[in-house]
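About this split. The held-out portion is used to measure sequence recovery: a designer receives only the C-alpha cells and must propose an amino acid at every position. Recovery is the fraction of positions where the proposal matches the reference. Here is one held-out target exactly as it appears in the evaluation file.
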C-alpha cells in the first residue's frame, strides 16, 4: 500500500512528525518534490532534527529512504545532512537516489540570491536555496540529471554550453562574476563521487516493492496553498506539493496511492509573502508565535519568524479537497490550550459577499475573514492518548473544524513527539 503524507496549508503543518511516526510501519519513504528550501522538524529518541532533503524515515533501521526523480537534489546538502545525523548517533540510513533526479547546481543558488536582490522589496521571500532557478531550468530543458554525471565527455560539452547562456545573464542583468566551465566540471566530479553509491532506477525499485506488497510512504513538502497550480500563485513554490504529483515525482502508478493523509494544523502559520486572510498581528500574534510549534514558530531553514493566524476553514477545506484527502491529521492542537476563546475563519468576505470557496489570488487579496468564536479549554492536553479524555471544548473545536472542512480527522497530534498522537 502506498500512502501519501502531504500538507493542507502553507507548509509547516507537522508532516515530518507524522511521517516519522508512520515510518515505524513502513518499508520505504520517498521524497517526491521540492528541495532543501523547506524543512521538517522531528523530535525522537535521538534528539531534535531539522531535515531538509532526507525523508523523515531515516531514523529507523528497517526503512529505505528514496530521493525521487521529482526532487531538486542538492548533493552536498544531502551528504552533509547524512553526516550530521550519523554524527549524532543515528545508524547510517539506507538511501537510494533516482538516476533521473535533477541536481541543484551552485549557480542556481547564486541566481536565486541575485534575483531576490534585483527584485528588492518586490521579492518572493525565497529561501535562496536555488529552487526556482532549478525548476525553471528543468522545464527549459537545460537541467542536469544525476545520470549525466557518468558520461564525462557529454557532460563537459553541456557544461560549456550552459555556462555560455548563464554568463550572458550574469554579465548583463546581474553584473556578477561569470561561471567558469572548468570549475563547474570539478564541482560535478565531486558530486559524482558523493552520489555514485546510491544511484539507481528508483522507479523500477518501487514497482517491484509495490508488487511485493511493501508499505510505502510518499512525503510531501510544503502544502496545498504553495502548489504552483492550485496555490496562491505567484507566492508559491516551484514544484507541485500535491499527493497526485507523488506518482510522478516517485515514478509510480497513480492508482497505487491508496491513502492520502493530509496534515492540517490547528491554527495557521506561513513563511514568506502572499495573501493570508486569517493572519493576526501585534501582541496576540507574538504570543501564538512564541508558544507555537515546538519552541516557537520560526522557519526550519531560515529561522525567520513565521506569520501566524487563526484556523482558516476556507483555506483548509480547499487544501484538503485539492489533495484528495482520505484522512486528516490535525496537528499542534496542544499549543492552543492557553486561549480563552478560539476564533475560526469560517468564510471570506469579498466585495460584500461571503464565500466558503477558496478563490484565486486576485480575489484572495481582497478577502476579509468572517470569524466564529469557540470557547477555549484552558488546560494542557499533552500526554492525553484517548479522544474521550480530551476536554469537551477541545473536542468541540475538533468536531467544528471537521464539519467545516468536510474530511474526517482520524488523527489528532498533541505534541511534537512520536507518541503524541490520538487516533479516532
Ligand atoms: P513540516 O514541514 O510539515 O514537517 O513541519 P515543521 O517541521 O516545519 O513544523 C512543525 C513544527 O511543529 C515542528 O517544530 C514540530 O516539532 C512541531 N510539531 C509537530 N506536531 C506537533 C504537535 O502536535 N504539537 C506541537 N506542540 N508541536 C508539533
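Reference sequence for scoring:
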Amino acid at each position: 500500500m502506498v500512502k501519501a503524507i502531504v500538507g493542507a496549508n502553507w507548509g509547516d503543518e507537522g508532516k515530518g512528525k507524522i511521517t516519522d511516526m508512520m515510518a515505524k510501519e513502513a518499508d520505504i519513504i520517498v521524497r517526491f518534490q521540492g528541495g532543501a528550501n523547506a524543512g521538517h522538524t522531528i523530535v525522537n529518541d535521538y534528539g531534535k532534527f531539522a531535515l531538509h532533503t532526507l525523508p523523515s524515515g531515516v531514523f529507523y533501521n528497517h526503512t529505505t529512504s528514496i530521493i525521487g526523480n521529482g526532487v531538486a537534489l542538492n548533493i552536498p546538502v544531502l551528504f552533509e545532512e547524512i553526516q550530521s545525523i550519523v554524527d549524532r548517533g543515528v545508524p547510517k540510513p539506507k538511501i537510494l537516489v533516482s538516476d533521473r533526479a535533477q541536481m541543484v547546481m551552485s549557480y542556481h543558488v547564486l541566481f536565486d540570491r541575485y534575483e531576490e536582490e534585483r527584485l528588492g522589496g518586490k521579492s518572493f521571500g525565497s529561501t535562496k536555496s536555488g529552487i526556482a532557478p532549478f525548476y525553471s531550468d528543468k522545464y527549459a530543458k537545460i537541467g542536469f540529471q544525476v545520470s549525466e554525471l557518468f558520461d564525462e565527455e557529454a557532460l563537459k560539452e553541456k557544461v560549456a554550453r550552459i555556462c555560455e547562456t548563464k554568463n550572458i545573464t550574469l554579465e548583463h542583468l546581474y553584473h556578477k562574476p561569470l561561471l567558469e566551465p572548468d570549475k563547474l566540471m570539478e564541482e560535478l566530479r565531486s558530486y559524482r563521487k558523493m552520489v555514485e553509491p546510491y544511484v539507481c532506477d528508483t522507479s523500477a525499485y518501487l514497482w517491484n516493492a509495490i508488487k511485493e506488497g511493501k508499505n510505502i510512504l510518499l512525503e510531501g513538502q510544503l502544502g496545498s496553498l504553495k502548489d504552483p497550480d492550485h496555490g496562491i500563485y505567484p507566492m508559491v513554490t516551484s514544484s507541485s506539493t500535491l499527493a497526485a504529483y507523488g506518482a510522478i515525482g516517485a515514478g509510480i502508478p497513480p492508482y497505487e496511492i491508496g491513502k492520502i493523509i493530509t496534515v492540517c494544523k490547528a491554527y495557521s502559520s506561513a513563511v514568506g509573502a502572499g495573501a493570508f486572510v486569517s493572519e493576526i498581528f501585534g501582541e496576540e500574534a507574538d504570543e501564538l508565535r512564541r508558544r507555537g510549534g515546538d519552541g516557537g514558530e520560526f522557519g526550519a531553514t531560515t529561522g525567520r519568524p513565521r506569520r501566524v493566524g487563526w484556523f482558516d476553514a476556507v483555506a483548509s477545506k480547499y487544501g484538503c479537497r485539492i489533495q484528495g484527502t482520505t484522512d486528516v491529521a490535525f496537528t499542534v492542537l496542544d499549543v492552543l490550550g492557553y486561549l480563552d476563546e478560539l476564533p475560526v475563519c469560517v468564510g471570506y468576505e469579498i466585495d460584500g459577499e461571503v464565500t466558503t470557496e477558496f478563490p484565486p489570488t486576485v480575489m484572495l487579496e481582497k478577502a476579509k475573514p468572517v470569524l466564529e468564536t469557540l470557547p477555549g479549554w484552558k488546560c494542557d492536553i499533552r500526554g492525553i492518548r484517548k479522544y474521550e479524555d480530551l476536554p469537551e471544548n477541545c473536542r468541540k473545536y475538533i468536531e467544528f473544524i471537521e464539519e467545516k472542512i468536510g474530511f474526517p480527522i482520524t488523527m489528532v497530534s498533541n505534541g511534537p513527539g512520536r507518541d503524541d498522537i490520538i487516533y479516532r
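Annotator remark: The first helix runs from residue 15 to 22.
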